[in-house]
Amino acid sequence: MSSPSQLVECPSCQLKLPLSHLNPHLDKCLSGGTSLNGSSQQHVKAEQWDGIFSNRLDPSPRGLKRHSDDLLQPANAATSNTDSTDKRLKPEPTVTINSNSATNDTPANSHNYPHQPTVPSTSRSRIDAAKPFAERMRPQTLDDYVGQSDVVNGPLKMLLRQGKIPSMILWGPPGTGKTTLARLLAKSASSSRGPPPHRFVEISATNSGTADVKKIMDEALHRLQLTGQRTLLFIDEIQRFSRAQQDVFLPAVEKGQIVLVAATTENPSFRLQSALISRMRVFVLTKLSVDECCQVLRNAIKCVEHEQQQQQQQQQAAHDDGDNSIASHIDQDLIRWIANMADGDARTALGALELALSTTDPSLTSADNLARLKTALKRTALQYDRTGDMHYDTISALHKSIRGSDPDAALYWLARMVCSGDDPLFIARRLIVAASEDVDSLAALQMATATYQACQVVGLPECGENLAQCVVFLAEAKKSTRSYRAWKKAKALVEGAYNHPVPLHIRNAPTKLMKDIGYGKEYRYEPRFAHPVHQEFFPPQLRGTRFLSPPPPEQEDANEEEQDADGAQAATMKVQQPVGQVGDRNDYHHTSMQSAMTSKAGVGPGSCQRIFDLGARSVDLDLLDEWEQERNGGHEWSGRSKLMQLLETLPAQPVPTASDSSRVVVDEGIE
């Protein structure tokens, strides 16, 4: 049995002390209150460390007593007993511990790593030291919060003075301070006067489920009933919850049992329940400006300088004259470059600053340090979500730039999408839509379709040239939205009007029964006529409806083209007569024409038809008169003069029979 005055060796620091002082010394030693003496390389047996930190000890009193006896036994005695009891055991391994005590000398090669932090002495400080740099640099008060002045200095400021926090949704890109703002709101409301302090609970939708949320809300209700303390529940990335999971929050938020603060990077209108959005306030957080990013970096540098000053004080107490200050060598040019590179993301900026602190060499100039950082840190990827708002906002900007005939802006937005890795086929499909909506040229649609095929064959990155060529062509082309606007009007009429039946005369009649019923009767087959004819294609209830607006004034020129007729050596005309053009009556020789025309009652809408054959086509003057009255505003057709001159040269024709007339005016087959 060992005596209380016997010297034993501490299993932690190998300090020899009386046995009666071992237990208090162990408590102090394991809590970080003492430092190792002697050499910086201390060898402690692995079995002793396992006995101290192992959680698989025998829970019985006998096992605990045996373990305590092992601790109280000197190291040499324990070794001798082990060797005497079991000679088959191999030599015990040793664990090498690097000590950073204040009494030890700094290693010789420490000057190569000037920003090497010391090991913290407490468990909390060890946890804080393990946090990422951006997490450790979070502001602790709202006064230190940078950016989002419209949100922080707006209604939230008055609510915080009263100790009130409404349920809210913080919507913004990554790195804009959503999580930091939620924590500071809870901290500010808890420290203000008024109601009891808030209990802050933070979870993430990426690793939490409905069961966790229900447990938190039950506990929040109990706390509210017993102490009046409200629970502020912060949920990061709430869009990861399904709509069914989001319904769990509705009763608690509606009754005021919890204050829900949710953060999301995606549009709440599409990813969150509308019932939940109506019960919460939506605050939009924007990207930080370059000046705001610079301010975030300067605040972080001040924190780093404070930490380095504390380390220098410890080194001076240990008689170490080394200078580890690196933050003072970060100049404004480097800060500005990091802020521009971060693209409004404070987390990205702080990560780049951490790399700059690790790679900055005080012996080099600021320009050399900046060049080294640029080689080590490539420019961050553009913030772009192929399925989120940024995707649709950018393609909308591209389409509107094309519509506004700004090829330079259109190329910029195209480059944004291509460089961000967007699908080139998606862009090409949108260009096809723009060609039909906004451009008054069939060549535009052909160009866009060819671009889509080129993107399929070539692929990125070369197909970017095909997209750029199409974008420039569409942006510089003449614009017209007549067909697009007419299509919108037609859809609106169909969606809101009665489903009218198709008129009989334009129905298809493939069988005899359908013809007997009246399908296709009195249909006028336009290709059989050498002039325009009028017939109503709308249902009777919609007669006179117009969707298409008149063409622009510069496009009102009539297009007339003469063609040779088959077998009769006569010319027929392909006419597109716009509204409002008036012919000259003096060119019509009505007296001579009457001698060349014969009249007879026929089968058709006119009671008296004047019908002539011009090769493969026919002339019906009654139908031409009807077209002029119904479709041309009462004005004469511009081709009537030439048509009448041509009819004067024809010999007298026999009087047509009813069957011949019906042959002209009745459709021989619906195409």
Automatic annotation (TrEMBL):
Pfam families recorded for this chain?
AAA (PF00004), AAA_assoc_2 (PF16193), MgsA_C (PF12002)
Every copy of the UBZ4-type domain together lies at 7-34
Q: Which organism is it from?
A: Sporisorium graminicola
Name the family: Belongs to the AAA ATPase family. RarA/MGS1/WRNIP1 subfamily.
- Stretches with biased composition (Acidic residues): 554-565
Polar residues bias spans:
34-43, 95-124
Q: A single Gene Ontology molecular function, please? A: ATP binding
Stretches assigned to coiled coil = none
Under the heading CDD domains, the entry gives: AAA, HLD_clamp_RarA
Reading the lineage from the top rank, the first entry is Eukaryota
GO CC, any one term? nucleus
Q: Which InterPro entries match?
A: AAA+_ATPase, AAA_assoc_2, AAA_ATPase_RarA/MGS1/WRNIP1, ATPase_AAA_core, DNA_pol3_clamp-load_cplx_C, MgsA_C, P-loop_NTPase, Rad18_UBZ4
Q: Where is this region: Disordered?
A: 34-125, 542-574, 651-671
The entry's keywords? ATP-binding, DNA damage, DNA repair, DNA replication, Metal-binding, Nucleotide-binding, Zinc, Zinc-finger
Which GO BP terms, alphabetically? DNA strand elongation involved in DNA replication; DNA synthesis involved in DNA repair
Listed PANTHER family: ATPASE WRNIP1, WERNER HELICASE-INTERACTING PROTEIN 1 FAMILY MEMBER
Under which name does UniProt file this protein? UBZ4-type domain-containing protein
